[in-house]
Specification:
With about 625 residues, the protein is an alpha/beta fold. The chain is built from 20 helices and 26 strands. The strands form three sheets. The protein has a nine-stranded mixed sheet. Strands 18, 19, 20, 21, 22, 23, 24, 25 and 26 form a nine-stranded mixed sheet that branches. Strands 1-2-3-4-5-6-7-8 form an eight-stranded parallel β-barrel, surrounded by six helices. α18 packs antiparallel against α19. The termini are far apart.
Length: about 625
């Protein structure tokens, strides 16, 4: 099946769009008329560029307000169509997309529309061209693909076919079963777009919030299964209108688009038994998290980890890297001058530069990552040192992959014996990453494409200075939990992190324990300090939950936050930010599945009180 994308889906000038689309691996494009109109070149120039880039042009679109016009306007509509036919022949495409009429002066009637399309088919056929008719969900008389198909059927012309669009079918809630009855040779083009579930009029929804298949909430799978029943094998083309996408890197958007088509095709191939991508990887553990720091900050971070009960368990044989451990948690402090960590530090300052995940099959994961155009990473290693497969992740950081039965990843470390006990922390509970709002869908797709994780409903968290969007991705047993945060408000903690960190990255890591009160007491005794929580919070908690007074007093004394749902209870406490960049969270779960979302605003307000004031520009 040919993979295509409409040029309107990405930003930039037409020639740059075409180069980007070709580089992402697409087979064809739909030329959006306004892209060509704004282009400083001829149709033959565009045709030549596409040919040189190995791109076909599967359609010119859109041709508006055609069928059902009063006689005077009808004549003009055919004149416009002939001009578009001229343009198509110069472009070297044979398909014109005609969308259903939205003009207030248009006339209804299935037969009238069929007559108009039949005559247009005659004119197109004489030039060796075809016309596809698409029902816009807001069309004046035709807004349902079933009516569009009836018009095409009655037109009964070989040059007239239907164009199906997943958004115009699924957003209004039309049934997809009738698609199965449409002959494949009468389907001239299929356009794909997803969208989040929003309470909007369908026109605004379409014009601003479409996204790639799998990034939204529309039942794209149902649409594709109905389409597959027809045995359609023509182009699948992405047509996306999204303000975020046009503000993003065109390269990233194009790759996301290609990735979505590969994943959509993979799901359909699975059902038909055709060759598919390797399965998404199952993650059994976060093996280690690596921090990039300079020598000055390395001692400070080591002190913080020591206060939290971590102990030094290893030193790298040839680099300035320390391993700090507690439970099954391993944290690396890398201050080596000649390493990836150093370049990450120079760009971002102190922060997480790599995360290692234990997966079921590294080779299969790397093969899938390569097919989905993830960027692989390799760096020099010393004699006898272990090479760990890796790809680029959020903010240019690394994701390392290790199998449970592979040689121990810490073979490069010389063990350091310690007389300290093992502490109270057991494992990494979740990792929170902040990113630009425009990047959020892309990274969400990245993670769900590679790993066997599911999305939870997106949340809006109230920061004192704006709203933060929060998306949870987690696997079934909770061994991998990721929280993606983004905000359009420039002064939220999430946005301030991006400014301080010079890009996306890990903003905080949560560690799980069985007794947060013992853990907090031991950590405070070792010198750890935690975020100061307002007394008003505990008054509110007391009124809502009527907790045991001793429990409430202990929570208040230790700065511990609390939440409860139908399944259990949750306790959490936060450290202060390290180097104004990242912080740690300690949590205790009692059959609780969430992340303390009701407390997020409390935490953010406390952090806002501690944050270094921003210097505001002077006016005048």
């Amino acid at each position: 099946m040919k993979r295509s994308i409409a040029t309107v889906s990405i930003g930039g000038a037409l020639d740059d769009k075409l180069k980007t689309i070709a580089a992402a691996g697409f087979d064809a494009v739909e030329i959006f008329e306004s892209d060509f109109t704004c282009f400083d070149g001829s149709a033959r120039d565009v045709a030549r560029m596409c040919s040189d880039l190995g791109l076909g042009i599967c359609a010119l679109q859109p041709f508006r307000d055609f069928e059902g016009m009063p006689e005077q306007q009808r004549k003009h509509a055919f004149r416009r169509a002939e001009r578009k036919f001229d343009l198509m022949q110069e472009l070297g495409t044979d398909l014109l997309l005609v969308c259903s009429n939205v003009s207030p002066i248009s006339l209804g009637g299935i037969d009238r529309a069929a007559d108009d399309l039949r005559e247009l088919g005659e004119r197109a056929s004489a030039r060796g061209l075809r016309v596809g008719f698409e029902a816009l969900a807001w069309g004046r008389h035709v807004n349902d693909y079933r009516d569009a198909w009836e018009i095409v059927r009655r037109a009964d012309h070989h040059a007239i076919g239907i164009i199906l669009d997943s958004f115009h079918t699924l957003a209004p809630g039309f049934p997809v079963a009738p698609i199965r009855t449409i002959p494949a040779d009468r389907i001239f083009l299929v356009q794909l777009a997803d969208a989040p579930q929003l309470d909007l009029d369908v026109l605004s929804w379409s014009r601003h919030f479409r996204c790639f298949p799998g990034q939204g909430n529309l039942p794209i799978g149902d649409f594709m299964r109905a389409l597959d029943a027809t045995r359609y094998d023509g182009p699948l083309s992405l047509e996306i209108f999204n303000d975020q996408f046009r503000a993003q890197s065109t390269k990233d958007v194009a790759i996301d688009g290609m990735r979505s088509l590969l994943l959509t095709g993979h799901e359909q191939a699975k059902e038909s038994g055709a060759p598919t991508l390797d399965a998404r990887s199952k993650v059994s553990n976060v093996t280690f998290v690596e921090f990039a720091v300079d020598p000055t900050h390395a001692s400070g971070l080591a002190k913080l980890l020591s206060d939290l009960g971590f102990r030094l368990t290893g030193r790298h044989r040839s680099k300035a890297v320390e391993r700090w451990s507690q439970g099954i948690i391993n944290l690396l402090i890398n201050s080596s001058e000649d390493s990836f960590a150093r370049s990450h530090y120079v760009t971002h300052g102190s922060g997480v530069c790599a995360i290692a995940l234990e997966v079921d099959n590294v080779a299969a994961l790397m093969k899938r990552a390569d097919a989905l155009q993830a960027t692989t990473f390799r760096q020099p290693v010393g004699p006898s040192e272990m090479t760990i497969p890796a790809i680029r992740g959020v903010g240019g950081s690394l994701l390392y992959f290790i199998e449970p039965d592979s040689p121990k990843w810490d073979v490069d470390f010389v063990a350091v014996e310690s007389e300290c006990d093992s502490g109270f922390l057991e494992r990494i509970d979740h990792i929170s990453q902040s990113m630009r709002f425009e990047e959020m869908l892309s990274w969400e797709q990245f993670y769900t494409a590679l790993f066997d994780v599911q999305r939870s409903p997106q949340l809006e968290i109230a920061d004192p200075l704006g709203l933060v969007k929060s998306q949870v991705l987690q696997n079934q047993n909770g061994s991998l939990r990721l929280i993606l945060n983004a905000s359009t408000a420039t002064q939220t903690m999430s946005s301030r992190f991006l400014t301080e960190f010079f890009g996306a990255g890990v903003q905080h890591i949560a560690f799980a324990c069985d007794d947060i009160f013992k853990a907090a007491s031991a950590m405070r005794a070792a010198g750890a300090t935690f975020l100061n929580i307002s007394d008003n919070y505990y008054d509110d908690i007391d009124s809502r939950y009527e907790l045991n007074p001793d429990l409430l007093d202990s929570m208040k004394k230790n700065g511990i936050l609390y939440d409860r749902d139908e399944e259990g209870e949750f306790f959490q406490i936060y450290t202060h930010a390290f180097d104004e960049r990242f912080f740690f969270e300690i949590v205790q779960r009692r059959e609780y599945k969430g992340f303390g979302a009701p407390n997020a605003g409390i935490r953010l307000a406390a952090q806002a009180r501690e944050a270094r004031p921003r210097t505001m520009p002077r006016i005048g």
